[in-house]
Design goal:
By secondary structure, the chain is α+β, with helices and mostly antiparallel strands. The chain has a domain at 51-119: 6-pyruvoyl tetrahydropterin synthase/QueD (Tetrahydropterin Synthase, Chain A, 2-Layer Sandwich). The chain contains two helices and five strands, in the order E-E-H-E-H-E-E. A five-stranded mixed sheet has the order 3-1-2-4-5. The chain is elongated and about 50 Å long.
């Protein structure tokens, strides 16, 4: 089994509507996003995925979220948790580069707090 990973970042604001604590107030994060592709076979060039293809797609998806108020994105139902952000990025990436064997997306809100989505 082979796995490759690329990463990108974006900054955004959000609040969690149905959370009771400090995260129910408007605040922001510098999100770190990791996209993992996984598969059992390599192409003729000896690669699972061209890093450049996956990195470009991930940067495009992250750019669409950068410096936004995540609560304004309908997919999040007013609760843009790290888990929902990871799922949205996963779905947007698979739509953008369907030939890439995307396995998982990790979203870090802080260096020590991560959520992962995989289908």
């Amino acid at each position: 089994m082979y796995e490759v990973r690329v990463e990108a970042e974006f900054a955004a604001a959000h609040f969690l509507k149905d959370f009771h604590g400090k995260c129910e107030r408007l605040h922001g994060h510098n999100y770190r996003v990791l996209a993992h592709a996984r598969g059992q076979s390599l192409d003729e060039g000896g690669m699972l995925v061209d890093f450049g293809v996956l990195k470009k797609a991930l940067r495009e998806v992250c750019a669409s979220l950068d410096h936004s108020h995540l609560n304004d994105i309908p997919d999040f139902c007013q609760n843009p948790s790290a888990e929902r952000i990871a799922e949205l990025i996963y779905r947007r990436l698979t739509a953008l580069v369907p030939a890439v064997p995307l396995w998982a997306v990790d979203v870090y809100e802080t260096p020590t707090s991560r959520a992962r989505y995989y289908a």
